[in-house]
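Homework help thread (please don't just give me the answer)

Our assignment gives two proteins as sequence + structure token strings and asks us to describe the second one. The first is just a warm-up. Here they are:
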Amino acid sequence: MKLCLYPGTFDPFTNGHLDVLQRAAKLFGHVRVAVAIDSTKKALFTPERRVEMIRANLRGLPNVDVVSFDGLLVEFARQQKAVAIIRGLRALSDFEFEFNMALMNRHLDPNVETIFVMPAEAYSYTSSSLVKQIAKLGGDVSKFVPKNVAQALKRAHAGK
């Protein structure tokens, strides 16, 4: 059974992330969502909380699990014996960054392929950063994130 990783900070996990994950689950025997512990970014949610929120949305995806990791993605992929990394591309603007990252990862480990997956058009403008900004300003994010994530965002920004 071939394993692929779907890495990201997922702060927060959006419907676009879920869409890409569902597409990846159709392509691979097993998909492992890899929540990055990134010390260079100030996250709203802890890695443990992000894992928990994602895990709550895996119903109907028996070949998917979620873990957190720290360090180089290709090293984690090697440790996990993953054959591929899934990356979502929302728009052409994502391509240059993701393309450069894929080439660097290939240089670091040529045995791990990067596969780009486009989410449904409805999610092409959704990003975690925008969702956090909308939630912080009191806007309704229920169209952009799973229900449990919308509730967590509301709690995180209550009283601010």
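The one we have to describe:
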Amino acid sequence: MEIMNYLAPDVVSLGNHEFDYGLPHLLFLEKMANFPIVIANLYIKKYYKRLMQPYLIIKKAGFDILFTGIITEKVMDSLNQDNLIGSFVSLEEASTEVGKITNAYKNDDIDLTIVLSHIGYESDLELAKMLKPEWGVDLIIGGHSHTILDKPAKVNNILISQAGVGTNQVGRFDLVVDDGTNSIVDYNWQLIPINNKLANPDKALMDYIESYKKKVDRKYNSLVCKLAEKLTHPHRMIETSLGNLIADAFAEIAECDVMFVGAGSVRVKEFGPMITLGDLRTCFPYDDTLRRFSITGQQLKKIFKYIMRKENRNSEGECYQVSTGIEAIYNDLTKKLESLKFKGKPVDNKKQYRICLQNYSFGSCADYLNITQKELLASGQGKVVSTSAQGVLEEYLRNHQNISSKVEGRLFYK
């Protein structure tokens, strides 16, 4: 947040990771921010009161520009169990909130209207279709799906852009706006790589970051283990060697038949072979509880059919890495789970199987896994097997030197 204050943006909106440490921490961050945060559809539900500033009008280059922001509960994993705070869940309801803002504040003096979203590119396309032309939205600048666009999409006369993830590049729009019609009449979009060819690093900021880095390195440069080879996690929608390693580590401590690891919680594309504590925290930064449940084979098949469906593999769905012993085959053409085996044998509908989930997956199990908390707890066998997934993974790696992991065909699509 201090670095963000140094960069001094004119306006920002919220993404899903601003919610990772709960509501009190989010409100602390907002108080720390020296810049405005806009979000239109985040409410204290009991009082029907917005939690943050819903819009901001900025005067730039002789124009009045209205910014508003939205997020949906689809990407608010960590607040799903907070009964006090909520977002208008669906895109339809989020679009209505945009309409409320523009109807109330978009007058003839507003030359440009921009929605800052963090719902993913495909959802941005759907949102644009729902926004009424009379609301005058000109741009949607999005995030969450890490989409890199060489040129913006245009839906319902609204330009939609996204510039990937991190600080590898920034997106730049050069706009020609007609202040008579309050519309964009011409534009140029560029993805600009951030490197030393573009500009020299800011020395004061580099020194500031270095002051933290020295403190962090003293702890996090310690060596945890050495893998037999580099492991990879190139895409969260497919089985990966790194995802398999993490799922197997958790399955061992949980003593379960199937471990489901949220593929998005693995945050690096390459890992090892030398692993420091800093590497481990970067790879798996979000600590969580691990919970074990007992379900029937029929319910297990229902889960795999749901998480492996093609429409879930769109950069926005919640995909999973699974532990060894599972062989699942899904047919994209027929939209059927053709086969599900455990340790070489077909999963028996009536047999009980023990599964393990991260707590955030349990909190959103109906949406992410197509099984309710009531169903997971029905057997009475629910158990917290670890209060720290990070701690489990660290201990596993420290005690498994030169370990390797391969893509084995645990999840196969045809």
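TA reply:
I won't write it for you, but here's a hint about the kind of observation we're looking for: The chain is about 30% helix and 30% strand.
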